[in-house]
């Protein structure tokens, strides 16, 4: 039997305090933008053609069961809160919906487009919400991405990306509660 020693809380905290996400500069091999295939909130199949879009697009990978997503849903009324201009688009991507969640999601989204697409989570390497990806049409690739720690963190990353600073995160976390 494998004998492993467990760390005390203090030891574990010291280890966690030293962990730093490593930004990945993709440079010559950017993450390509891909079309998102899934269903809209009525259940109708849809495709969001990010592979051919000519406008900047912020993808927000969210869930109604995600504690960290509430503030992001609340801020959706103003594109500028996320660093996205009026001529750019925000698309909310959800992995799955439980029965009856369509109405709640519609109420929270307003005019924001939404697609239910487990495949998009896989295609963009998202292990769980909250996560964001900003697509730069000029570069035909992901300009910035990361764990969505809050509206300000997304806005800062999008603004930096628009200024040419590409920051792609390797850390993928989920604040979604699988038991709810």
Main attributes?
single chain; 180 residues; alpha/beta; Glutaredoxin; two-stranded antiparallel sheet; 5 helices; 9 strands; globular; disordered C terminus
What features would you describe in this structure?
With 180 residues, the chain is of the alpha/beta class. It has a single domain, classed as 3-Layer(aba) Sandwich (Glutaredoxin), CATH 3.40.30. The chain is 23% helix and 22% strand. The chain has five helices and nine strands; from the N terminus they run αββββαβαβαββαβ. Strands 6-5-4-7-8 form a five-stranded mixed beta sheet. α3 links the parallel β5 and β6. The longest helix is centred in the C-terminal third of the chain and has 12 residues. The chain is globular, with a radius of gyration of 17 Å. The chain starts with 8 loop residues before the first helix and ends in an 11-residue tail after the last strand.
CATH class: Alpha Beta
Distance between the termini: 34 Å
Mean pLDDT: 79
Judged by helices, strands and strand pairing, the structural class is alpha/beta
| Order of adjacent strands in the largest pleated sheet | 6-5-4-7-8
Strand content: 15-25%
Number of strands: 9
Radius of gyration: 17 Å
How many domains, in number, for the residues? 1
The appropriate CATH architecture is 3-Layer(aba) Sandwich
């Amino acid at each position: 039997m494998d004998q492993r020693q467990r760390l005390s809380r203090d030891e574990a905290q010291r280890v966690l305090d030293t962990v730093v996400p490593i930004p990945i500069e993709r440079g010559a091999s950017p993450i390509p933008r891909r079309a998102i295939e899934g269903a809209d909130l009525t259940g109708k199949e849809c495709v969001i053609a990010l592979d051919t879009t000519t406008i900047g697009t912020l993808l927000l990978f969210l869930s109604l069961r995600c504690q960290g997503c509430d503030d992001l849903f609340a801020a959706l009324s103003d594109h500028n809160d996320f660093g996205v201009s009026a001529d750019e688009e925000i698309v909310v991507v959800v992995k799955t919906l439980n029965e009856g969640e369509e109405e709640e999601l519609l109420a929270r989204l307003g005019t924001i487009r939404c697609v239910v697409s487990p495949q998009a989570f896989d295609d963009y390497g998202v292990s769980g919400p909250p996560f964001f990806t900003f697509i730069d049409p000029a570069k035909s690739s992901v300009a910035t991405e990361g764990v969505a720690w809050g509206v300000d963190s997304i806005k800062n990353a999008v603004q930096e990306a628009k200024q040419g600073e590409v920051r792609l995160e390797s850390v993928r976390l989920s604040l979604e509660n699988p038991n709810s």
